[in-house]
Amino acid sequence: MRKKIDTRYLINWIGGKRLLRYRISELIPDDIKTYIEPFGGGGWVLFYKDNWAELEIYNDLNDKLVNLFKCVKFHPDELIKEFRWMIASRKIFKETLESTVYTDIQKAAKFLYLISRSFGGAGRHFGTGKRPGGAAKSQQNIMARILSIHERLDKVIIENLGFEELIAKYDYEDAFFYCDPPYTSGVGYEVISTKDFDHEGLRDCLKNIKGRFLLSYDDSPKIRELYKNFEMIEVTRQKGINNKCPNGREYKELLIANYKIT
To answer: Is residue 37 within 8 Å of residue 58, measured between CB atoms?
Structure first.
């Protein structure tokens, strides 16, 4: 019997919440009417449930991510046609990495291929090793996930805004923001580096909202100081590809909120 695949995600993404999505989901209130992710990334928390609220917003500054999810939402069949024969091959990976594409669907297929077939989902190096995984993924499973996420995105609004503008646009009493910003240390992002991200600006923005927020961050002295007046719990997960944790295989994170969490 073929193993059932997990269709609650499409891509692995740097900083994604695959290992914490269950814990995060337990802390999201049931009485919200609007669910917003200002830093959507790979959408691991958004896609974990069939529905979080009457209105759901996915947002990210990364144009490639936004274009991918828009193509999945509006043109899944065309995306699958473009992606179908982009098989796991070091030669094809190199050619795709160096290729020039023009249409949104071609751009989405190229991005999906490079993320899916690269080491750690970074999109830069063909992901083969001595053990299963990496580039050795089922092509059929990826296409099945495109169709699954297409259905999940049916009523989701996809935005491409800075966090200040997005939060101001959607904030009200029944709004809930799950925020997963760049951390104060670790791997960088294509759009903005961890060094350049405005951590103080995000704190100032969130402390004045009418709705509720849940925030995931690295457990660092700076973040503890910035959010010392908010609810805060410690969580740990296994290290990912970043591999910069000073001690052992566990990475410490904080979940921070402006409402009671346990």
So the answer is: yes
Query: 170-180, pLDDT tens digit by residue?
Result: 999 999 999 99
DSSP assigned state of 155: T
Q: Hey, what amino acid is at 207?
A: K
Q: What is the mean pLDDT of residues 13-17?
A: 79
Instruction: Give tens-digit pLDDT for 179-188.
Output: 999 999 865 5
Tell me the DSSP string of 69-90.
HHHHHH-HHHHHHHHTT--S-H
Cα distances (Å, whole numbers) of residue 140 to 17, 86, 88, 113: 24, 12, 12, 13
Domains (range + CATH), the chain: 1-61+162-262 (3.40.50.150), 64-160 (1.10.1020.10)
Contact 32, 2 (CB under 8 A): no
Is the distance from CB of 45 to CB of 156 less than 8 angstroms? Answer: no
Supply the pLDDT for residue 42: 95
Estimate the crossing angle of helix 104-116 against helix 63-74, to 10 degrees: 110
